[in-house]
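Why do we care about 3D structure at all? Because function follows from shape, and shape follows, mostly, from sequence. That is the central idea of this module. The next example makes it concrete: a single protein chain, its amino acid sequence, and then its structure expressed as tokens.
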Amino acid sequence: MDRHMEQPWSQRWSDGLVERAGMDADRLSRGRTARKMEQVGAIEVEPGIVRAVVHTTSEARTLIGVAPLAESRWETAMGLITSQASLSAALLSGELPEELAEFLLPARGEVSCDCSCADGGEPCVHAAALLHAVGDLFDVEPFALMLIRGRGRNDLLTEVRKRRSQLLGVVEPERIDLPRGVDPGVNAAESWRHDPKPLETSPRLPRQPGSLVTLAAPPPSDSGIDESDLRLLVADAASRAHSVLTGDGDTGLSLSTGADVVRRAASGDVARISAATKVPLDELSSAAQAWQFGGAPGLRVSRRKWEPTSEQLQPGILALGPNARARANRVSLLRSQLRLDEDGLWWLFHADDELGWVLASESAADPVDLV
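And the structure:
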């Protein structure tokens, strides 16, 4: 398997036909030229069968038979998938992990060819061309290999979800087989016809987000997920949802990745987040302090320069005194600095020996209120 780890599925398929299925390499190579000349028509794929019309010097109707995956091999493959969270996640996100090649590629006696041409060899040039074309198909849609081996994509994903759910003990067995995304109990048209309930009759919003529920099972050891990190993420999501419902904040979903890291650091373990994200600790600490005072606008004014007019800067100069020095949107005097943002608000910064200029207040329309 090591030889195949970096190969596309088409190459694994071609190599497997020779090395595992025992097909004649010389006869198989004859089909590569025909495939490159686009002489293979539309490919029909169904469990155990691939068929197409192939044009070389003559037209031939060609069929490839592939034995369904033996139940024992299917069970072994499913055991591997459910034991490794990374494989389950890959499948559920639409990828066919390369680790499954060992189970899916056919062995000796599992591939047969049938063609309407007069060539009695196996594979004939038409069948060889179709076999190469099927390999190309796997590069575009690797789950076609699952279908050829007798297991459809939906069957596979349903089985993965079922086994992972049973392993974690978080889903009742009788509900596992519901198709993903189906709402079994609410009719949208009927709900639309109902009059909305008065807001005052709605359940009261709790004063704070609810407490975390203990996980039924810890994340798999190979998932790369730390349970404490997961708890922090859940608590953060609950806090943001609560702030949206109370009208004190928004979801934060519009933030860039960098801004969201700063937001998390402003209320979390800055050193730990710095180590996880590789953002220098002093830079993240300064940004987190800016967020604590001013949220996204505070972070923005701490990072962005712009060129206001001298008239726009005059209130800042008057607030700090005649010795103040103005540059870009910043007015400085000794260890104090006023910054004007593009909305016309002023922010006070103080010099820190380790962090540089750090935000020290909320914004104000009049800089005199800050100094």
